[in-house]
Amino acid sequence: MDDVAGSLSKNWRPDELEPQDPPMSRDGGSGDDNGNPDLISRLPEEILGSILSLLPTTKGAAQTSVLSSGWRHLWRTASAPLNLVIDQGPISQESKRITIVSKILAAHSGPARCLFFNQPGGICLRREFYAKFDSWFRSPSLNGLEELYLYGGDMLPCLLPSSALRFAPTLCFASIGHCDFALINDALVLSFPRLKQLKLYHVSISEVTLHHLLAGCTMLQSLDLRWVRGRSSIRIISPTVRSIGISVCDYYDEKLVFPELVIEDAPCLERLIPHGLRGGPRTIRVIAAPKLAVLGYLSRLISELVIGTVSVKEMIPIMFTTTVKVLVLQSVGPNLDAIVAVLRCFPCMEKLYIQSRPRKDMKNVQQYDTLVDPIECLDLHLRAIVVNMYQGLGPDVNFAKFFVLNAKVLKVMKFGVYGSNCNEQWIADQHRELQLDSRASGDARFDFVRYNGECTFSNMKHTHDMWIDDPFDSSLCKCCSPV
């Protein structure tokens, strides 16, 4: 996004928010160099304001004032909602940007659509700016705010002013980072009747406050919790949420780990996606989520996954009702015994993504008679498999061959090949070792592509994009890796 305050400081003097009028046309109105009348300016002010409201930033709306004297004040009016974006800029000009933001808020009559404080490099809610932020949040120009992107600070979370909560009745989207909710009274009734998307990252918040916050989001559809501090557990009760992304640990602060995530009651939840290689809590319990269809990335650091009354980590081979169709997990070895137990726990699974962690002592000798003890997803549903870190060695081949010989409705199996030439001869050898001529599904296709070593399943860009049926399917989006 554009640096509104920074760009304004380059083009306008701090004591003025208006450029000079353009030349007048022959008929007394503004026009082009040939004297043609400005027909757009003859439109009603309400329509002109609607046009300006479609511009993504206040800078763009304000710059339209050079087009016509009739447009000079439109960007300030209620018909052109404020979209204020404060992006990155030199730290030496931070005070100037703060002054310009204050002038914009003083000049615009409101309402506001978007207030965006960008991440590191932008204006942060540091202690010396706390009073200024508080006054901004109380400005009438921000009445009706729909989107709030607030970045607290670069290091420890900064206090979130209670005045920020005055936007609760109108917010549709909120992203709050590096903030401490300590000033928010746990007993305060928090109501966000229009909020559909909520992202909290690097925040400190009590369990009671978080519970009240989520309870007040009566229309919430997507929830993103990343590196939340001070939690012993997080319990989710939401009648509307459809997607949850969560990350509770990073490489630099083990204290960010919390032991348990509990999906207590989420009747509309379709996606539960832990982010990052170390993203998940130690235990995930899904008590009631009857529509859950996408689950993962489940790393080896998630010690237990409980769905209903069945512990998947303990690999209890019991069939139970679950709607999960897309499963993404990490497997050390890869471990065929563990994966087969997982398959039995997810009878409706259609797509399986596996991030392998090769181990030389893994044998993966097939010991399963699927005729005597059938696995439902292999017989009826599993149609796509992606295996990353495939090296084509004995354990890899034995692991993959199980699916080749038993997945009866398989359509495609993709191998992200690592540490190999992956040339035509090598692929031909793999076809022979995997016994593709004896595959259980005659329509199955087997693709081998080079893998760069990155876990393409752990850094999710489409967690909350519900228009994509499978957020892990890289073929649906150009911004993702091909595997």
Radius of gyration equals: 28 Å
**Shape verdict:** elongated
Task: Please provide the count of β strands.
Answer: 21
Strand content: 15-25%
Distance between the termini: 30 Å
Name the strands of the widest sheet in spatial order. Answer: 1-2-3-5-7-8-10-12-14-17-18-19-20-21
Q: Would you tell me the structural class of the helices and strands? A: alpha/beta
Protein name: FBD domain-containing protein
Organism: Triticum turgidum subsp. durum (Durum wheat)
InterPro entries: F-box-like_dom_sf (IPR036047), F-box_AtFBL13-like (IPR053781), F-box_dom (IPR001810), F-box_dom-containing (IPR055302), FBD (IPR006566), LRR_dom_sf (IPR032675), LRR_FXL15/At3g58940/PEG3-like (IPR055411)
